[in-house]
Amino acid sequence: MTVTAPSPLHLESPPELKVMNMTKRFGTLVALNDVTLTLTPGTFHGLLGENGAGKSTLVKCIMGFYAPTAGEILVNDQRHPIKSPKDAHGCGIGMVYQHFTSVPAMTVAENLVLSRYDTAQTINWKQEYAALNDFMARSPFQIALDMPVGQLAAGQKQKLEILKQLYLKSRILILDEPTSVLTPDEADEVLGLLRQEVKAGHLSVLLITHKFREVTAFTDEVTVLRKGHLAGNGAVADLTVADMARMMLGADRTTKAVDKTAFATGKPVLAVSGLTALKDNGLPAFGPLELTVSSGEIVGIAGVSGNGQRELVEVLAGQRSLATGQVCINGEPYRATRSEMVRHGVFALPEEPLRNACVPTMSVAENMALRTFDRPPQARGRLWLMLRAIREAAQGLIAAFSVKTPSPETPIQNLSGGNVQRAVLARELSSPDINLLMAANPCFGLDFQAVDQIHNAIVEARNRGVAVLLVSEDLDELLALSDRIIVISDGHFTYESSVEQANLTDIGHKMAGH
Predict the structure, then answer these.
(1) 115 is a domain residue
(2) Is residue 134 assigned to a domain?
(3) 388 and 489 part of one domain
(4) The predicted structure's pLDDT at residue 4
(5) For position 360, what pLDDT does the model report?
(6) Strand, helix or coil at 274?
(7) Which terminus in the chain has less CB density within 10 A, N or C?
(8) What is the CATH number of the domain that holds 476?
């Protein structure tokens, strides 16, 4: 085996790509552990796994965004130390990212030229347009060159992202969840046209997805990751959906024990009826949904990211307007105003709390008082803040919830992620009047100790009779904590069961939209 520096490989046929024994560590966290993958020339290869399985880490190592801790990349059996996306481009590898990278104010033609790695000081637009028109005539997608990108629909923007890689003569395309912003018809069109290019021998495609339907409909081979490890691979024709679900979710899943108090579920606290909302791009996000959460129960909503759960939580938290339907708390219409939150005892532990639940530059004490700063004893006459009372209350919460901070006056942005989460949890669970807790991915990215503390706090709230809505992409977490589990897929509830009677295979199928 020879060792060479990266060199342009823009061949008419795609090269073979091998990822050998790839490992990536971030401190003590092992994000990827000894993973091997082969992308055979002229094939459509699916990379399947739950969120956090290591898919993005693997492709970022291939593209040169991360330096792997161990392992190597071989292109046509030659070792290529890829240290940047430009090195990857030199090997004929290009990536289409989950979020659009084109400049909205520029035209399609300008974005295509801008995507090049050359260092030309001037542009001869007459020559460029002649070359671009020839390229567009041979491409699988047709988009008007003079159209400003900001005026394109989401499907056209995604096609442009793919066209940029074809224009750069990439022969290996890595697609990161390319259909997450597309309608089902658009998704089938885009993947179908790429499939034709693959069958013609012009491309190899590595498709990162969480949808079994896309794997079975478009790919030739599949590699499945689970918690950073290689869980399985093979020809799609030789595997059933049940086989892939078992690889992705794990056959030997163990649920940790939590100290739940057994009692009859109480009265309904949260009731959602006919609820719908829109995404940021104006497409339907979810619905219509029907949901009830009663006192003394944890209802877990399972789903892979991008299926409407984020927008649902934002509607319930008052951060997004509903389109149709109604939300009721304790039988009364609820619009998530501050006064309604106080009256009904609604509290939340949102995803990314430093961004969604804190003021980063304010102190730990001030952030802990965001719920109570305008009420005695922390306020006098709604005009004067009683700083001593705010500090004393914070000291009590810091001790009770084991928040590691130099002092209550430390800016909360200086704390670790786990301690920010503990601080928000302390604020949200310390009220004696809490009736409803909404938690979204409450333990994402935290260490084991922080996870156990947060899980115990959520269960203790449930044991006190609090109604808990737990939205999580971690199925282990949901199975451990929930009393009832619901699956959301493509904006709809597709499965519901008590945890005791839950069928893991059915949950896997429904989560993957199968």
Answers:
(1) no
(2) no
(3) yes
(4) 37
(5) 93
(6) strand
(7) N
(8) 3.40.50.300
What predicted TM-score, i.e. pTM, was given to this entire model? 0.63
Residue 446 confidence (pLDDT): 63
In a domain, 362, yes or no: yes
Sequence-distant (≥ 6) Cβ neighbours of residue 127 within 8 angstroms: none
| CA separation for the pair 5, 400 (Å, rounded) | 56
Instruction: Please report the pLDDT score of residue 3 as a whole number.
Output: 38
161-182 b/e (C-beta count within 10 Å ≥ 16 → b): bbbbbbbeebbbbbbbbbbbbb
**Rounded CA separation 485/474 (Å):** 12
Give the pLDDT of residue 288: 96
Do 70 and 165 have their domain in common? Answer: yes
Q: Cβ neighbours of residue 28 under 8 Å, at least 6 residues apart?
A: none
Rounded Cα–Cα distance for residues 6 and 71 (Å): 17
Q: In terms of Cα–Cα distance, which of 96, 8, 91, 19 is closest to 61? A: 19
Q: What is the pLDDT of residue 12?
A: 64
Looking at residue 455, its amino acid is H
Rg of the chain over all Cα atoms, to the nearest angstrom: 25
Residues 213 and 292 reside in one and the same domain: no
Examine the fold and report which residue of 249, 280, 296 is the final residue of a domain before the chain moves on. Answer: 249
Are 501 and 437 part of one and the same domain?
A: yes
Tokens of 152: 């394109």
> What is the structure's pLDDT at 377?
81
Q: Classify residue 99 by burial, with Cβ atoms within 10 Å: 0-12, 13-18, 19+.
A: exposed
> Do 213 and 305 belong to one domain?
no
Distance CA 343, CA 357 (A): 20
Query: Which range marks the domain in which residue 82 is found?
Result: 17-101+156-249
Both 412 and 337 in one domain: the answer is yes
Return the pLDDT at 400.
86
The structure tokens listed for 374 are 């305008």
Residues 196 and 331 placed together within one structural domain of the fold: no
Residues of the chain under the 70 pLDDT cut: 1-12, 51, 180-181, 183-184, 251-257, 263-265, 382-383, 444-450, 514
The one-letter amino acid code at 341 reads M
Q: CA–CA separation, 431 vs 464, rounded Å?
A: 12
Same domain, 216 and 352: no
- Our count of domains for the chain comes to 2
